[in-house]
Structures are given as structure tokens and as C-alpha cells.
Fold:
Amino acid sequence: MRFPKHLLFLSLSIILLTTLTSSLVESKRSSPSQKASSDASLASQRILQAYLSSPSKPYLELDSESFRLLVSSPERDYHAAVLMTANDPAIKCQPCLNFQPEFDNVAKNWRKKSNVNREKLVMAKIEFTNGREVFRQFGLQHAPALYIFPPPTPSNPTPEPIAYDFNRVGFEGKELASTLSQTLNVPFKFSRPLNWKLIAVTSTTAVLVAVFGFVVSPHLGSLFKSSKPFWLVCSLFCIVIFTSGQMWNRIRGAPYIMVGQGGKPEYFAGGFQNQYGAETQIIAAMYALLAFSFIALTSLVPNQRDPTRQRAGVYVWSAIFLCTFSLLLVIFRMKNPSYPFRLFF
Amino acid sequence: MSKREAAPPPPPPSSSSSSGGGPIASIGSWLSEPKNNRNVLSFLRTIIIILLWGAAISSRLFAVIRYESVIHEFDPFFNYRATRVLAKDGFYRFWNWFDPTAWYPLGRAAGGTAYPGLMVTSGIIHNFLHSINIPIDIRNVCVLLAPAFSGLTAWATYMFTKSMKDDAAGLLAAAFIGIAPGYISRSVAGSYDNEAIAIFLLMMTFYLWIKALKDGSALWGAMTALFYFYMVAAWGGYVFITNMIPLHALVLILMGRFSTRLYVSYSSFYALGTLASMQVPFVGFQPVRTSEHMAALGVFGLLQLVAFVELVRSHVPSNQFKLLLRGFVVLIAASAFAALVALTYGGYIAPWTGRFYSLWDTGYAKKYIPIIASVSEHQPPAWPAFFFDLEMLVFLFPAGVFILFRELRDEHVFVVIYAVMASYFAGVMVRLMLTLTPVVCVSAAIAVSTLLETYLDPKEPLTAEQSAEDVVASEALDSNGAKPSTKLKKTKIIVHSGDSSDEEKENASEPVSFDNPKSGIFGLDSRAFVSIYTLLLLLVFVLHCTFVTSTAYSSPSVVLASRNPDGSQHIIDDFREAYYWLRENTPVDAKVMSWWDYGYQIAGMSDRPTLVDNNTWNNTHIATVGKAMSTNEEKALPILRKHDVDYVLVMFGGLLGYSGDDINKFLWMIRIAQGVWPDEIKEADYFTSQGQYKIDDSASKAMKESLMYKMSYHRFNDLFGGRQGMDRVRGTPGPSVSPKLDILDEAFTSENWIVRIYKVKKEDPLGRDLFSANAFEAGKKRKRIVSNSPSSSGTGKAKKARKAN
Structure:
């Protein structure tokens, strides 16, 4: 997914070259009667041809200049879907990187369409590094953004671009495809390319599980009956994980950790209804420690048959228990400053 | 697997007696002669439970004392209204109650689309009190129902925990559930909602199920079914029971713990419970036609098969035949499952409804049913919410589950499953904290009582050398003095032979009971230390619960409170002021349009027809209101006219800093409207080009033109002497020029501007459309009074017009 810069330039130059050659080929092919019109719609047609014939990538890589050419050419008779993104690793745009393969897939799917339909849409991409002006022009604070530019019509020479709403629709290629098919009024079904790796892995696992199940099935009952520690650990793990807010992280997509002031890592999110991934893990670990020290006090220590050792055990586990609890209260007061109770600190 | 299991273990003969008198062992061992103390102990237990009841009630009365005896929030207003119908007109009138004023113009068959359990309960209480000449107002019954039932919940939890461990743990659990904020949050006085009685019913059903399972009794199974029926009639959350009990049965079968007790109790529960639940009109045929209920049916079928196989196996010796039978079970189960899938695809069985489905696929609701995702109680909670609601119980909870795992009787399995499932559900949806709280209280109580009985036990254990030296002496000690210890050991042995697993036998040697002289605490200092700080922690827990209840959960939300500079309390009563204005100043059939949150309140307090309310059954209708609120006046007017809207009501917190206002909910209105009219309403249009949600001058065009925005900020600047007003919720200035309304007249604005009511203008008498008529008027005005700004003159005109009316 990471794209070295020189490669990017290489691909850009390849695209430019293909653009040139294809336009040459096109001009050779076109008959004299069509020549006048093709001259007039030169820029937009050239881009379309480049798009249709570029072999390496399913979409066009644009920069500010070519973007302007594409969008503002008055004779354009096709839609343009432009993804504005920042895949440069230096920018650390995780959503951009996540969305890129989906976009690739949609573009590949679109290429498979018949010629007639294919000419209705050009898919393109602008990297932030190549198109700062475009980002500025659209006032973009976030990446990725995706705009669909409808072709200008005589009644409406500068149609408003349609913004694709990632927040609502999400980052799935299926949704992009259905939006495109609605906008263009062309049936377009998204099919994911077969993920051979995934298929291989799943089928192997399935076979393994089946074999395993076949071998184990006579002992399945005993798995439920006598492997109590296994089920114990499983259920306690689930309980601790869920009560420390793991599902919130999953649903809200919380960041694992944030960089606070002065470049220091920030483990705890401010606010009562907010948290980070690391925060959940810390809290889960504290809950586990608290529960374990409590279990130690109730079950382990009384079994100690040596009075001195037992006394030491009682005090040590009590100290761990009380200190961890106090610490938990400190963290909780950080989250909820009006909370009045404290234990030690 | 083995023959020992084939024959179901006989119910422990001592178990029935032990549930009555055995648990005395825990407390009674401190006392020399348990027999003499039995009455004293049961008297003490009764006293403690009554005291706990008092504590549970009194900690829920903050709202009544601070404000007054008032119904809270939104949903309770409908329940209250329905209860009034029931109390006034009787049961049959309530059963067939069609409410033409809700969901105008559709109406709502309220009697058949609500869970009637709550209303019937308070109706019965009301009638009973009246029959013994206590003339209590139905409102007070409704307000105080939830606290009264919380005492019953404490009792049910006591019984449940008692069947898990012993009396001491039961009492602790009752104390915990009585004051745990996770439960108080939905059962303070005035929170007259289904949950008020449902948690009691939940715990009671679970307790009876455990009891039925322990005894293998069809009678208790029928009792379980009875309470299950009550639960079905009371709360939609009954589906939790519908799936928990079958899950428990299934796990027991998988563990090889199938027994005739399980067969009898589950079959009687399921057959009777399902038939009973179908009598509730709102549920109807769902138990046989929806996926939520299929697990229960499947386990019922499986249980019949397993029972059949067990029966045949006990009569037929051949090994091959056993294999054949097992294959037969698997085959039947698989084909039944396939049939289920086929029926679901065929449309005979409804798939999971969105609300339940979104519990598993957590992204589902946001995308497809924004109306569910928009409700704040359907959001997932972050960890502070758990700690806030449960404090130290949250980490004693796993410790308690661990202790249950040591013995892992059939009923302990139930608590373990309940614990895992409920923590998942509570993690996904903050509202389900309510179902998690009881199990947390139960297992935390088990943990704490285990700790306390270990450290309060006055017996000194033997050291390693001592016990090695004289085994004989200890045996003599056993036979001599400690009768209860031998008794307990006996019951334990019986239980273990019932479980019949090798692991269990190993555990049996592991010291579980404090009666075992091999384990225990030496010396007084460690005992005193641990006991004292445990008691202190329990005290802190009480303080925490009181603090949380008083600060977070006792606000009725129809009455707000703030503090004056001198510290005295200032009551903000805008909602009731406005609803009362509607009641007194508008015709009885005036239709009021507002966002659905306020539908029940308007119906309950103003008694006026509403377009949408909190019973969100018709998404399109709600989206229509959302569309009217979010489009411009030209497009909104036809919608208002078509629905005969006379008044529009909005909440605006900008002046006071009340954050739950309509501008903050506006995005959901847009989203819900967009779900139905994606071409006309687009969420992105309401953001600035930078993607921000703004309300000042840089707000987007669609935002500024929307009816909601105009209604909220209409004349806002007049309050600030014509200068730009400051919105204290958004923390930004409002629009520099207050928006002007063409189709609405301001009718009423409450004291703190929280509620604003607008009247939809009548058609222009000269046949012009409202916009050109307004422009004409404004033009004339401007000529006459040059100095006034157009907006204020417009409202002056409006006021005059109202007076003329």
C-alpha cells in the first residue's frame, strides 16, 4: 500500500505518456469529419481516452493542473468521480489507506463494464502531495473526500459536485458502487475480487476444524465437563473485557492512544463518555488485578498453613487490593472531576 | 457418557430441607445451638429484609422531596395516561382503547400496542387501596410504584442468591441491588416505566426457574411460566428470559448434565409460558413466528429428543443402537435447523427485528435504522459508565463468578452464562446495564460474603504440623462437638456424587467451607484488618450510591434545577409552563407538531393531538416531521397543511445552556428524513464546507433556511438589545440577523426560552400566498417606521394580529 515517491512519479509519467500516445492514436484514427469536434473537446476527450486505455491502473492519477482540466472543461459529457486522499505515509491518514483498496476494487469493477457505459464515468484520484491547491480550493480539512462531478449541461453549465458522505455511508466499496449507480443511472453491481488468500485460509481452517471436530467429538462432553479452568478463564476474560468498555471501542472505532501536549503519549481520554483503546486495557488489567487479589484473599491465603506466611499474604494482597482501588478512583476522578470520593491518593 | 449419568441423579434428599433450614449453617455455626436459634434467625432475616426495603425506597425519593410527586421524562407520560384510562374506565375500555389523538391522522390502538403489565399492576393497587378506603390519587400510585417494587426486587434477589450460596450472601445481594445506581437509574420515584416492575419479574422468574430445576418440579416450572407471563405482559425485555433459560438448558445438556429434573422443569416452563405469553395482544403469535423465540422452541425440541434417547438407551443394551440413536438426534436437530432457516427465508418466520439484530451487528442500526441509533440509551457505554453505576461491584463481579466456578452446580452455570451474556449486552447498549446489575449484585455478594465468612470465622485452623501430628484428634473433634460441620459435609458429598465428575472430586478435597479446619485465618490482627477495611469499602459503596443517585439519577427532566448565586435552588419549569399554556390557550383539537421525543409529554400534559410520539412505530411519519423541520418554509408549508398542523413546538436551550434541545437533535431529524427522502434532504448540506456543524453566520444555506433553525433563533437577538445573541449550548454567537418566519407566528415562548411554540398562519384572506403577503406587509411597514428593523416590526405586527384574534 505504501507507495515510494519515485514509483509514483514513474507511474505518473507512464500515465502522461499513455495519455499522449493514446491521444495521438486517437487523432490518427478519427476521421476528418469528426476532427473538428474532437478538437473542441480535446481536453476532456483526451482524459477519457487516457482513462479508458491506461493499462496499469484502473483510475487516473491527477494533479492540480489535470484536475482543473478535467473538472472545468465545458464539453465534458461524462461524470467524474474524484477521490482526494493522502496515502503518503508521512501524513498518517489511516482511513485513506483503508479506503484505497476499496476504491481500487470499485474502479476495477467499473472497467469490466461494456464500452458504452464505461464512457460515462472517469474515476480518478488526487494525492494530497500532488494537489494541495485542490484541497485548498475545496476547503478540505479531512481526507479522504470523494466528489462526483456531473457533466455540465446547457441548462446548468457548472453543476455542483456531489460530495460522497463517508460518515454516513461508510467506507465500503459496495456503498460507493451503489451511490455511483444511482448518480449515473447505470446498473452497477460491486463484486469483490476473490480473495484467494482468505479462501485458502478459510477452507484450510474449515478442514482442520472438521478433522479436529471429528477426532475430538467423542471427548466433546468431557471438554465441557472437566476443562473447567478453560471455561473459567474464558468467561472471566469476557466479563472483564466487556465491563471495561471494549465494545465501545469496537463500535466507535476509538484510537488506541493519542499524542498529547509536548509529544507525550496520552493514555486517558478526557471526558466521561470517551476513552482510548489503551485506556480500556489499563482498566481491564486493573479490574483483573483487583478481582485476583480479592480471590487470593478469599481462597489462596486461607489455605496457607504457615501462620507467618499467611499473615504476610493477607497484608500484601490487601495492600495490592486497596492501592489498586485507590488508583482506579484517581483515574475515575480524572474522567469525572466532580466525583468526591477517594481512598489513599 | 457413562452409565452413572444415564440414570439421572436423584434429587438430593436433603436439598429441599437445606433450602429451608440448611443455610443456617453459615450464620448458625457462630451460635452454639442452631435449633434454638432458628426462629431468632428467621426473625432477624425478616427484619433485615424489611429494613433493606426501606433503604431501597428511601434512596429513590430524592426527586419527590426535591421537586414534587411528578412523573419523569418521556415514556412514563404515556404509561401514566394509559393508567388513568384504566383506572377511570376500567379494564375492558383500556383493552380496546384506540387513541385518535396520537400519530395524527393515523391514530394508535394503544391498548393493543403497549405492554399492559405496568398499568394493570398500578390499576390493581389503586383499586385495592380504594376498596380499603385509602383514597390515594392514581398519580401517586404511579410515582411510587417503582420504589415499592425495588424492595420486591431486593427480596427476589435475596431468594435467588440464597439458592446459589446461603442466606448471608442473599442478604448482601439484596442490599446491593437495593441501592446499586445501575438499577436506581430506572426506578427512582416518578420513573413510571416498564422497567420499574420488570427487574423484579426478571429476578423472580430466574429464581423460580432455578427452584424448578433444583427440585425437578412441574409446579415450580408452572410458577416460572406464570411469572414469565407477567414479565411478557410488562416489558419487551422478556426476550432476555426467553433466550437465557433455553441457553442454560442447552449448556447443561452439552455438559452432560441432562436430567429428568431439567426435562420436567423446562418442558413445563416452556409449554405453559409460551401459551401464556401468546395471550398478551401485543405479543400475539410472535412466540412461534419470530426468530427471537426460536431458540426456546429449538431447545424444547432438543430436550424431547434427548429425553427420548435416554429413555430408549436405558432399555436397550446394544452399543450400536446407541450410536444409531445419537446419529438420529443429530440428524433431527440438523434438519429442524434447516427447516427453520427455510421457513425464515420463506417468510413464515420473521427474522430478527432491527432492535435485537443491532445487538449483534453493532453497525447495523446506524446505517439502516437511524431512529434506533438516535436514542441515547441505545448507545454503548464507555468504562466510566460501568464504574459509575456499579462502583466496586464491577470488579467483585468476576471474583464472585470465580467462586461460583469452584463448585459449579447446575444453578451456578446459570449465573455464569447470565454474567457473560449480560456484560456483553450492557457493553453494547447502555440501557441494558439494567439487566447486568442484578447478576453483578448476586456474584459480588457471593464474593464479599465468602470473604467475610472466611475472616469472621472464629475457628483457628490447624497449622501444618498440628494436623499432620494428630489426625485422630481432629476426627475426634468432628464426632464430638461440631454437628453442623458433619451435616454440611454430608450434603456436600451428595451434591458431588450427583455431579459425578473426577474434577469435582479433586475439588472436594480443596477447602471450600470455612468449617474445614484445614483452612482458615490465623490470629486476630489479619482478621480484624481485612474485616474492617471490607466494612469501610462497603460504607464507601453506600456513599457512592447515594451520591450518584442524588446527583445523576434523580432529575425528573421535565423540571430542571439550578443554583442561584447564593446557593439556593432555582427551579426551571419551562416545560410544564409551556404544556400548560397549550392546554389552556388552544382549542382541544389543535394539532401540535414536535419532534417525537415530546409526543408523550404533549399528550399527557397538554392533552392535544400530536403527529409523532415516543412509540416510534411509524418511521415514515417521523421522517415526515423531520423533513418539515429541516426543509425551508416553502417546502414545509404543504407538509404542515396536509397534516392539519396548528402549532409547532420546538425546544431551544441556547439562552439557558440546556444541551438537550432540538438544534442538538437536529442532525438525527435530518438523518431520519434522509432515510426516506434521500433526494430532498442531504445531511452534508447542513454542514459548512469545512464539515462543521455551525449555527452562526457561517452556517450552511440549508441550515439557515431550515424551519428548525428559524424557529430556534427567531427574535433571538431581541433579547440582547438587537445585538448578536450568544448561544450558550453551542458556545458560539447566534446569527447576526435573527431569521424571519413567513408561515408561522410566534405564539408562546417560555420563561427561559426552552420551549417555543409557533402557530401556523391561516391562509391569506386576499388569496395571496403567505410569502408575498408577508413581503407586502413588510414593505408597507418599512415605509411607515423607518427606524425599526424589519424583523422586530414583523413580530410587532404578529402580536397585534394575535390580539385581534
Q: What stands out?
A: Confidence is low (pLDDT under 50) at residues 20-40 of chain A. The CA atoms of residues 21 and 50 of chain A lie 9 Å apart. The first helix of chain A runs from residue 5 to 29.
